[in-house]
Amino acid sequence: IEQEIQRAMQFFKSNFAAPKLSTIVKRDVEIALDNPAIRAQVFEDSVFVVIDHSNLQYVFVSPRYKDFIGIEAKEVMAKGFDLIASLIVPEDFSRIMHALEKMVQAVIQLPVENRLHFYFSYNYRMSTPWGIRTFYQKVIPLALNDKHFPYLALCIVSDITELKTNLDVHYRLTLRPPGKPSVHLLEGSFSSKAPPLSVREVEIVRNM
Predict the structure, then answer these.
(1) What pTM was estimated for this model as a whole?
(2) CA–CA gap between residue 27 and residue 23 (Å, rounded)
(3) What is the pLDDT of residues 143-173, one digit of tens each?
(4) Which segments of the chain are extended strands (E)?
(5) How many CB atoms lie within 10 A of CB 126?
(6) CA 200, CA 197: separation in Å to the nearest integer?
(7) pLDDT below 70 — which residues of the chain?
(8) 114 and 208 in contact (C-beta within 8 Å)?
């Protein structure tokens, strides 16, 4: 798992470089979280965190996240991505990284004006003080870097242990342009009993 974590860190840092003025991060978070469209997606039974993918640090962690993973929010913020990655079941971590690489390639093909109008969702298993739990995570971009690629993201996390009946990892990239219908750009499922080869991709719609 340590090798996978290092690979993931390199992946994030190479694809989500920070803006030249990193001081805008706090402002970007405040503006985004004040957006009713963003707040509407934070469900009552969920918690959320804000992560800066350029340095893999958490800008904000909901205090209730402790109820999900048994670790205080301040510790998650202090230790960042390393801590969370170490808790994810290794098999699922590898599959998530595979899905994220596909997501990045898809987002690169989107017009710049649509790069803040999508969300990426997936499920994974994590070790907690109460045993292995299954979580569903929706990642919503909040701000673009100076290369017009999302680097700051709101992650909405829900515990779906009681609803998930198999160990497969499912993921989906959905475009939600203002005033237009949602479009699923990328969708796939990795079986826990087979290599991650069963993937269905929809051709990217460039001009939504």
Answers:
(1) 0.74
(2) 8
(3) 888 888 888 888 889 888 888 777 888 999 9
(4) 46-52, 57-61, 118-128, 131-144, 150-159, 169-175, 183-190, 199-201
(5) 20
(6) 9
(7) 1-45, 192-208
(8) yes
